[in-house]
């Protein structure tokens, strides 16, 4: 793998950490956009803190991976991939396509993080 590709994957992994930290804060603050989107896909507001914990654990695991615990980083990235696949499923099930770009973006970031830990950070 080229240095440019490795650097890009690293940057995307860091972006995944930042994006997940942002959405965890938004979930815990019960931001209007989070509540509106959650209601559209049929998610009860009481579930938001639990989902924030899962996303926060994923972001923390990615940080641990970047600090040298590569298997933990890979496990966290895979967990986030599964989480955002479920989020996409919730959007599709509820036929909410006007906001589907957000879980797709988060899924893409999680997939690049998984690629980074599986290929580059070995």
Describe the structure.
The chain is an all-alpha fold. The protein has one domain (3-120). The protein contains five helices and no strands. Helix 1 (3-28) packs antiparallel against helix 3 (48-66) and helix 4 runs antiparallel to helix 5 (101-120). The chain crosses the membrane at residues 100-121.
Please describe the topology of this protein.
Elements: H1 3-28, H2 32-40, H3 48-66, H4 70-93, H5 101-120
Keywords:
single chain; 122 residues; mainly alpha; 5 helices; elongated
In angstroms, what is the radius of gyration?
15 Å
Percent strand = under 5%
Output the number of helix runs: 5
Order of helices and strands: HHHHH
Please give the number of β-strands.
Answer: 0
Query: Cα distance, first to last residue?
Result: 12 Å
Question: Can you give the helix content as a percent range?
Answer: over 70%
Query: What count of domains describes the coordinates?
Result: 1
Look at the structure and give the mean pLDDT. Answer: 96
- Classification by helices and strands: mainly alpha
Shape: elongated
């Amino acid at each position: 793998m080229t240095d440019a590709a490795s650097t890009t994957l690293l940057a995307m992994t860091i972006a995944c950490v930042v994006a997940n930290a942002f959405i965890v804060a938004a979930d815990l603050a019960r931001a209007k956009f989070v509540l509106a989107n959650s209601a559209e896909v049929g998610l009860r507001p009481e579930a938001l803190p639990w989902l924030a914990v899962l996303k926060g654990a994923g972001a923390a695991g990615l940080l641990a991976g970047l600090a040298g615990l590569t298997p933990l980083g890979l496990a966290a990235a895979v967990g986030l991939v599964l989480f955002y696949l479920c989020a996409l499923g919730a959007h599709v099930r509820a036929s909410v396509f006007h906001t589907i770009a957000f879980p797709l973006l988060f899924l893409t970031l999680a997939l690049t993080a998984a690629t980074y830990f599986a290929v580059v950070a070995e």
